[in-house]
Request: fold
Amino acid sequence: QVQFVESGGGLVQPGGSLKLSCAASGSRFNIGTMGWYRQAPGKQREVVAQISSAGTTTLADPVKGRFTISRDNARKMLYLQMNSLKPEDTAVYYCNRLILGTLESWGQGTQVTVSS
Reply:
C-alpha cells in the first residue's frame, strides 16, 4: 500500500500560481494512474487531473489550459502546477492512486485558498 503526503498549498490572489507536491511512500509507485483531487466546502470530492503510468494526462474541464500534472517515478513524486487561479479553485487538494478501479487511502491534503 502507498501513503501520500501533500504540500505546497497556501493563500494566493486570483490570477496567481501555486505548485502542489505529493510525496508517496511504499513500493511500486510507477504502477497505476496517479491523480489530484479536490474538495471544496460543502461539495463532493472531485478529480482534477490524472496521469497514467505511461504519462498520459487527463484534465477536468474547469482546469484545462491552467493546470499541469506531472510525475517523477524515480522520486515517487506527483506534482500539480496551477496557473491563473480562480476563487472557485479554493479547496483541499489530495493526491491518490487508482489501480483496477480502487483508490488508496487518503492523505491529509493541502489547502488552497484563492482570494483577494
Observations:
- The CA atoms of residues 8 and 20 lie 5 Å apart.
- The mean pLDDT is 95.
- The chain is about 0% helix and 50% strand.
- The two ends are 40 Å apart (CA to CA).
